[in-house]
Amino acid sequence: MRTYRLTRFSMLHWAMVFALTVMFSVRAQAWYPIVTTDSQLPDGYVGRPYSVTLEATGGVEPYTWTWLEGCLPGGVSLKSTTGVISGVPRGAATCNLAVRVTGADGAYGNLTYFSLRAPNKTLLG
């Protein structure tokens, strides 16, 4: 069994390394935006107002949201400056769409895929 003696310098050195590691891990964030909204969006209903806000974290705000592929129910659209998907679905649909969020500095992450249903059913109440 070996015994090691730590000098004051090495103890101070390791304490500084530990403190910097903790500070970095707590303050670190992605340099590009990451979508945090669940991929299964809430259902919309034909003829009823619909609105959901996509959310992201990291990168540089303000974000720009871009609909790249897939569909949205007729009457529903994505607002690029806010990430709000809203409107009044005109017909029943099940849609899958791909969205990209881009930070103000132009950095972006992977495509995020969402699923949105707009069944043709009446809500009671």
Please give a structural write-up.
By secondary structure, the chain is of the alpha+beta class. The protein has a domain at 34-118: Immunoglobulins (Immunoglobulin-like). It is built from one helix and eight strands; from the N terminus they run αββββββββ. It has one helix at 8-27; strands at 34-35, 50-53, 56-57, 64-70, 76-79, 84-87, 93-102, 112-118. The strands form three sheets. The chain has a three-stranded antiparallel beta sheet, with no helix packed on it. A three-stranded antiparallel beta sheet has the order 4-7-8, with no helix packed on it. Strand 5 (76-79) and strand 6 (84-87) form a beta hairpin. The longest helix has 20 residues, at 8-27.
Task: Record keyword descriptors for this entry.
three-stranded antiparallel β-sheet, 8 strands, 1 helix, Immunoglobulin-like, alpha+beta, single chain, elongated, 16% helix, 125 residues
Provide a brief overview of the structure.
It contains 1 helix and 8 strands; from the N terminus they run αββββββββ. It has 125 residues and is an alpha+beta fold. A hairpin with a 4-residue loop joins strand 5 and strand 6 (84-87).
